[in-house]
Amino acid sequence: MTRRFLVTAALPYSNGRLHVGHIAGAYLPADIYVRYLRATGAEVRFICGSDDNGVAALKTAREEGKPVEELTAFYNDSQRRAFDGLNIRFDIYGGTHQPGFVETHERFSQDFFRKIYDKGLFTKRTSKQLFDVQAQQFLPDRFVKGTCPHCKSENAFGDQCEGCGRTLEQIALLNPVSVLTGTKPELRETKHWYLRLDQLQGKLSQWLASKKDPVSCGAHWRPVVINQSLGRIEAEGLPERAMTRDLTWGVPVPLDDPDAKGKSLYVWFDAPIGYVSFTAALLQRTGAEQYDHWWKSPDCKVVHFIGEDNIVFHAITWPAMMLATHDSDSIQGVVGEYQLPHNVVANCFLNIKFPGKEEEKISKSRGTAVWIEDYLQSFAADPLRYYLTAIAPETQRTAFEFDDFLARNNGELGNALGNFFNRCISFAHKYFEGKVPPAGERDDADRAQLARCREAVEKVGAELEGCHFKAALGEMMALARAGNLYFDQTKPFLSRKTDLAACARAINVCLQTARTLTTLIAPFLPESAEKAATMLGLTDHQTWSAATCELPQGRPLADAVVLFPRLEGETT
User: Fold this and answer.
1) 91 lies in which domain range?
2) What is the pTM of this model?
3) Segment 343-371, tens digit of pLDDT
4) Does 353 reside within a domain?
5) DSSP assignment, residue 309?
6) What is the CATH number of the domain that holds 149?
7) Which tens digits make up the pLDDT trace of 429-453?
């Protein structure tokens, strides 16, 4: 039976450009995973789009003096171009408030809210919230800044602390200040609808606890996701959480209630529903099956790729929302109900380190970032895809260093992987008329090298199945180094003068190794894989099961090209 996966990558706020931290955090690993799954024959839908609603876009629009519709459209397009430039290929890239998507998204979001409301899992409460007297408005989420009551970081907002990552209620902030006017806000009464997370806590804890064992749940959940989500529930429990805001830019609260006037759904309520609404939009355009074929079918595995700051929302809030819509008491597996995530794959933050300076957090406001659109003006996609995977912050924070990026491209990609392809294909052109030479009678060294190819396919595949992308890349590069070692040890450059049959046999094995590598590098380095496939005359290099299918004797080879040109540059 064909495996089916619905893979999503976190929706970026449409209020800024993309940088290397964004790509390393969620989008590149998701793309590698999707490319691998498709190579194995799995049926996959890859979903993403911009998060347009809420305070983030309004705040940036105000700072840039633009209408929020214009700002979100601009950055949605900018992000789309950046992803395309890095060969991150979504099946659809939508936008929660973009033309062609907003109506479908509002319908799904409001339907979600109504179903939960009808089940009695929302409570309308009067609460006190911060109000900017000068601006004459309540201050939702990021319109108020202050000191975190937990870690005492001064970089805390009304929804989350940037220092410790905890979700916050704005009235808990110490020394709150309005982002609009810089004045101290006052507390005033307002009414909002709170999701009864406490009533969902038992099911949610049971579901999260089941993810500790990869054998029973069928997925390798990263410890940081389990520890942060389940640990928070066990330590603090789940309080009610407001899912509406005093805001008009967003999805209107769908209730016939005078207190709902002028209010919208909390952006973290409607944002994950974007995964569903974009899936529906994709299928509407293609005329294929309905969205529930992917979201409500137990035989489809939903996998979310996110950054560490989104763990709480994807491992607690979003699954709780889906549980709240269920008509049965089952946690998972009932046809016709939203399927909870098969896996939530979270990377830690990627920092940045400039020469002579300490490692620091990537920051838009301080300008400490490598912006994708700037990078693509000087370099190709694959060197960055390689580097960000090689230093992937899968279990702890790592840092982007420009000099290290250049060194790894020139030393690892160029000298190990690229050089192997170049030397064996160039040799075949020079001494075997540009064709695959005969295999002859293989000896133990030949058989051992081909066994390494088969082992590499198994090892890389196993690591990718477990979402261990850094380790998978390492196994692929180990095969490239083994290929170079085999070339050096068999010495075809000497045997061509003394034993042409032995020379032909060695080059044949080298070319079979190159053929395997072409399939293995495809999820990581798609442009380079296409060039390698052209050199080897392959048409099936994206089929995982064909990775060790040998090139036939006499197969014409195209001229060797440099896969990874040496890079030069200066850190600015």
Assistant:
1) 4-121+196-347
2) 0.94
3) 999 999 999 999 888 899 998 777 789 99
4) no
5) G
6) 2.170.220.10
7) 999 999 999 999 999 999 999 999 9
